[in-house]
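FORM 7B: Structural annotation worksheet

SECTION A. Query
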Amino acid sequence: MEKNNDTVKDYTETIKEFGQMPMPEDELFESPIHCIQIIGQIEGHVMLPPQNKTTKYEHIIPQVIALIENPKVKGFLLVLNAVGGDVEAGLALAELLTSVGKPVVSLVLGGAHSIAVPLAVAADYSFITPSATMTIHPVRMSGTVIGVAQTFEFFDKMQDRIIAFVSNHSNISQERFKDLMLDTGKLAKDVGTILIGEQAVEEKLIDEVGGIKQAMDKLYELIEQDKSEGDE
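SECTION B. Predicted structure
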């Protein structure tokens, strides 16, 4: 009983400190599914103010590596409610998620905006709740920007990386995604598009409208499929 109490304490502390479930190392929490949350802003090379709710990419990377190495974990659920953040950190996490070698299902709750869009589509199958939103807009940068042609070229190349990644990992074309990104009629005083629930599916950005049950069912289905292919 003492062991179980210590495990519960460690479990609670991990959630409190990192906003993540610990790896299954005890029968009390053993499950073939691991859940990773991407919430608030994705924090990259620059630390954000303490009042900001953030997901630190240096916390996610070792978790994903542990998922690959842990034989108990057969797949994982990626839950997103993120407003965006560091472009390179977000793309790095998205690329990492596409190469884990285990089934991944994503669920957009609340919203997956800006650089969180590539993270949502990085999964093998994606869901969005009916009221959740996704904001697609051009790359932005805060702070001092040098107004020269090289700066524009840098932004353009970074934007092309995002467009290519999203189109390669969803069913939306590069042309259509870029049109949504550069639309001038959808956002007041800004450029871009907001997609709500079914609209994200209609644009072929997300696979299906659904909630946690549908996402879990799909993940178990993919795990069984992965197991059958492995047995063959």
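SECTION C. Observations
The beta strands are 33-43, 54-56, 75-85, 104-112, 125-128, 133-136, 193-196, 208-209. Residues 3 and 202 are 50 Å apart (CA to CA).

SECTION D. Sign-off
Analyst initials: ____
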